[in-house]
Amino acid sequence: MGGNELPLQRIEPVSVSGRGLPRWLRRTSGPVALVLLWHILSVTGVLPSEVLAGPSTVLSSAATLIETGELQEAMWVSLSRALTGLAIGGSIGVTLAVIAGLFRLGEDLVDATMQMMRTVPNVALIPLLIIWFGIGEAPKIALIALGTAFPLYLNVYAGIRNVDQSLIEVGRTLGLSRLAMIVNVVLPGALPSALVGLRYSLGIAWLALVFGEQINATAGIGYLMANAREFFQTDVIVVCLVVYALLGLGVDFTVRTLEKVFLSWRPAFNGT
């Protein structure tokens, strides 16, 4: 070999080459700037404590609630309600979506009813839920289940019906049975839409939880908020709102992780 060889260099795609600040730093800059602005407005008196407590007061209240164990207990109760309602509503939504998506008869029997019911505001059903289930845990979980069933139904149904027809033809050419076609082609093809529906359902679960915990709650984040409202404790209210946000962020992160695990076979655009 000649002596004019160029040294070998590793070539990286532009999409993965590092540019500028790390991504985690860019993602946290917005929330940090917002908290900093909130602190400045509080210490300068532009934002009175009667209107909204400052970050230092909120942190102090959070530490007190953690020390007494009230916050952990409330988080566990609220998380249990949300996940139980999601499990019930999600199971119903996915089951009906599979029936309507796979079979024309199922679509005729299920889809029109689901499309009609999803337009009814869930909050408007609270009086009926109280009459049917009382004022215990059942109406709270039922409200969450109703809210989470429809996003999963719509997305799973759309995912099944939008499976590439060429994949179906390939399956038929390979001689796959109807069951094998559903298990190996249709359901994996509908999985991306199902995970999107799950993310929507989780977001709605937290919204429904806020309303549900106003129904004679004796525990949970909503109960803490209701008590704080009675005594104009804006610091405790902010603590509860932050907890709601962090719980929602946590479960959303879980779903995003599931997407990376189960959809690793699918190339996707990650932004520029």
From TrEMBL:
Q: Which residues cross the membrane?
A: 29-47, 82-105, 117-135, 141-158, 179-198, 204-224, 236-255
Q: Does the keyword DNA damage apply?
A: no
Q: Where in the cell is it found?
A: Cell membrane
Q: InterPro entries given for it?
A: MetI-like, MetI-like_sf
Membrane topology classification: Multi-pass membrane protein
Report the Gene3D superfamilies cross-referenced here: MetI-like
Q: Output the PROSITE patterns linked to this UniProt entry.
A: ABC_TM1 (PS50928)
The Gene Ontology biological process annotation of the record reads:
alkanesulfonate transmembrane transport
Alphabetic keyword roster: Cell membrane, Membrane, Transmembrane, Transmembrane helix, Transport
Q: Where is the ABC transmembrane type-1 domain?
A: 75-255
Q: Does the keyword Membrane apply?
A: yes
Q: Which Pfam families match?
A: BPD_transp_1
An example Gene Ontology CC term for this record: plasma membrane
- Its job: Probably part of an ABC transporter complex. Probably responsible for the translocation of the substrate across the membrane.
Say which family it is in: Belongs to the binding-protein-dependent transport system permease family.
Tell me which PANTHER family the record gives. ALIPHATIC SULFONATES TRANSPORT PERMEASE PROTEIN SSUC-RELATED, ALKANE SULFONATE ABC TRANSPORTER-RELATED, MEMBRANE SUBUNIT
Q: This protein is called what?
A: ABC transporter permease
UniProt organism field: Pararhizobium polonicum
